[in-house]
Amino acid sequence: MSAFVFAELAVTDKAMYRDEYVPRATRAVAAFGGKFVGTGRRVAFHIGMASPSSRAVLIEFPSFEMANAFYESSAYREASSIRERCATTFKYVILDADADALPGGQGGDASQKIAP
Question: Which of 15, 44, 78, 108 is the most buried (most CB within 10 A)?
């Protein structure tokens, strides 16, 4: 069952983020079977306030265990130490829910999954 890593970043040093963090983090993601589902700076924040330099990243891993192994790996710890100097980050690992556990018991219909 897939797991997703969602991160929101407020980049404070764009050059360090681009030149030092991104290449290392990308290699670490690939080493654990991860793939980038979406990345970008064009993010609509519907609740809360975003930093002017905010970006969001969504990465899919083959399993919850692989997502956590990525996060705890020495390769990502090295990248993370750089990220800490160039961005403020909020990060979550989310296990892909079983469709039967979702309200309505089916995937696909967001109105059945999100309370108003």
Answer: 78
